Amino acid sequence: MNTSTCTCAFVGTASLLVLLSLAWGYGVAAGADSPAPAAVVDGTGKIHVPSDYRMIYQFLGSWAVAGKQGRGSNAIHTVYASPGVVAGYQRDGRFPEGSVLVKEVFDAATEDMTTGTVSRSETLKGWFVMVRDSSNSHPDNKLWGDGWGWAWFDAGDSRNTTSTDYKVDCQSCHLPAKASDWIYVKGYPALAK
Ligand code: HEC
């Protein structure tokens, strides 16, 4: 649709609203330094996977989980951050309020290529999502606490988490990263100054 030649006021207004809500949802209206979690969290603290993270988020880093036997990796994890997170972290040394982190989990395939024995992301298993919330604004929701919202999503359903309690589902595994706000920052070259 070419809005400059559209004479229909309703369509013009509607598309403006869509543009505004898109801008707000991705933190663009608030400035790139303050990522808004509106696009991934509703008022009750229900989290979902941001739909356009591969286009709009910044790549932080990736992890290759070695296979217990054989060659190459069993899994590859790819981590993205919402707009403004990298700049905010570089400036303040901590994750800005509303930061959203998405970790994709892939089963890996390994084969000989011209560069050597190479593992690549093959089948998406799902996503881990974390949302920075240092004021702990959802005290009654078991997916929120210790400064973050925490959730896992199976690949088939990016809207509804299957995790129920971050203290059971997530926290003990993130204990080694407690000093860096529960995040394994050493895996993310993009956060270094
Ligand atoms: C089996 C241990 C384990 C469990 C369970 C676990 N994590 Fe993690 N998580 C890790 C490790 C280790 C990393 C970094 C290395 C990697 O991905 O292999 C990580 C990385 C992440 C990242 C990328 C940012 C970072 O911290 O580096 C997110 C986001 C994440 N986890 C969220 C979650 C959420 C949400 C849950 C619970 C629903 C959860 N994790 C459960 C071990 C775990």
Task: Tell me what the structure shows.
By secondary structure, this protein is α+β, with helices and mostly antiparallel strands. It folds into 2 domains: 1-30, no CATH class; 42-191, Chalcone isomerase (3-Layer(bba) Sandwich). It has 5 helices and 6 strands. The chain has helices spanning 9-25, 53-56, 85-92, 166-169, 171-174; strands at residues 58-66, 73-81, 100-113, 116-132, 144-145, 148-154. It has a 6-stranded antiparallel sheet with strand order 1-2-3-4-6-5. A hairpin with a 2-residue loop joins strand 3 and strand 4. It starts with 8 loop residues before the first helix and ends in a 19-residue tail after the last helix. The chain binds heme C. Residues 63, 65, 77, 79, 101, 103, 128, 130, 150-152, 163, 166, 169-170, 173-174, 177, 183-184, 187 line the site of heme C (HEC).
Write the layout of secondary structure elements.
Blueprint: H1 9-25, H2 53-56, E1 58-66, E2 73-81, H3 85-92, E3 100-113, E4 116-132, E5 144-145, E6 148-154, H4 166-169, H5 171-174
Antiparallel strand pairs: 1-2, 2-3, 3-4, 4-6, 5-6
Heme C is lined by residues 63, 65, 77, 79, 101, 103, 128, 130, 150-152, 163, 166, 169-170, 173-174, 177, 183-184, 187.
Per CATH, the architecture of the largest domain is 3-Layer(bba) Sandwich
* CATH T-level fold name of the largest domain: Chalcone isomerase
The overall strand count is: 6
Give the structural class.
alpha+beta
| Strand arrangement across the biggest beta sheet | 1-2-3-4-6-5
Shape: globular
Helix content: 10-25%
**Cofactors and ligands:** heme C
- Report the end-to-end length measured between terminal Cα atoms: 43 Å
Number of domains: 2
Number of helices: 5
Order of helices and strands: HHEEHEEEEHH
Uncertain regions spanning at least 5 consecutive residues:
1-32, 34-38
Instruction: Assign the CATH class of the largest domain.
Output: Alpha Beta
What radius of gyration results from the CA coordinates? 19 Å
**Main sheet makeup:** 6 strands, antiparallel
Q: For this structure, what is the CATH homologous superfamily of the largest domain?
A: Cytochrome P460
What is the arithmetic mean of pLDDT? Answer: 85
